[in-house]
Prior knowledge:
- The protein folds into two domains: 3-77, Arc Repressor Mutant, subunit A (Orthogonal Bundle); 84-197, Rossmann fold.
- Helix content is 42%, strand content 17%.
- It is built from nine helices and nine strands.
- The protein has a six-stranded parallel sheet, sandwiched between helices.
- A hairpin with a 3-residue loop joins strand 2 (59-60) and strand 3 (64-66).
- Helix 1 (8-26) crosses helix 4 (67-77) and helix 2 crosses helix 3 (45-52).
- The longest helix has 19 residues, at 8-26.
- The protein is elongated and about 60 Å long.
- The termini are far apart.
- It binds 1,4-dihydronicotinamide adenine dinucleotide.
- Residues 89-95, 116-118, 121, 135, 153-155, 158, 162, 177-179, 193-195 line the site of 1,4-dihydronicotinamide adenine dinucleotide (NAI).
Amino acid sequence: MDRRDVPQAVITRLPRYYRYLGELLEEGVERISSNELSERMKVTSSQIRQDLNHFGGFGQQGYGYHVPTLYAEIARLLGLDRVHNMIVIGAGNLGRALAGYANFEKRGFNITALFDKNPELVGKKNVRDIETYAMEDIEEYMDTHEVEIAVLAIPKTGAPEVAKRLCDKGIKAIWNFSHTDLDVPKGVVVENVHLSESLMKLSYAMEEA
Ligand code: NAI
């Protein structure tokens, strides 16, 4: 199955399926019916059937889903079947917290370097054994290392310029935590993450409850 054939709404739900299927695998569950999965995930079994029907014949009447196959297929679609090298721009509280989270590596997201404009942080291993480099070194680093993803964990004022430098050097994707929308060339993927927006949604839901 080609990922382009899968609707966007289904793709946004895939990480959650992936997480639940991973838990089932850890429990040694080989197969599961859509009803059982529905109870676990608290979504309707028809939604599950519709979503997972996009992934070929893994669901069979009277059998359910073969958990390892479906897990592997979703991993492949999400690009989790290979390693992605990432650099983190901004070695402050957020950048260090992200770089310190070793679980990303288990999913194939390998953080190889941090960059910061503060000379006091440069040349040190501020998180685990990951070195912090000076901003002037980004271009050379990208010339000599394979880097696919950059994490932007700097204030919004510096983000557009840094994003441009990264794009000029052929970055494929930016995981953007800076509070600004980035203007990037076609082909560069940007995923914005705004924890405060999530908190606002929570606050709205509390008002409704
Ligand atoms: P921080 O002040 O602890 O760290 C920022 C780091 O970025 C500092 O080490 C600083 O020297 C460096 N820096 C600043 N401008 C730079 C530039 N142009 N190039 C390279 N390095 C630069 O701040 P913190 O808490 O780590 O937050 C970083 C940014 O992320 C903030 O602007 C904050 O608003 C944003 N943020 C976004 C969140 C989100 O959910 N999207 C959550 C938390 C923070």
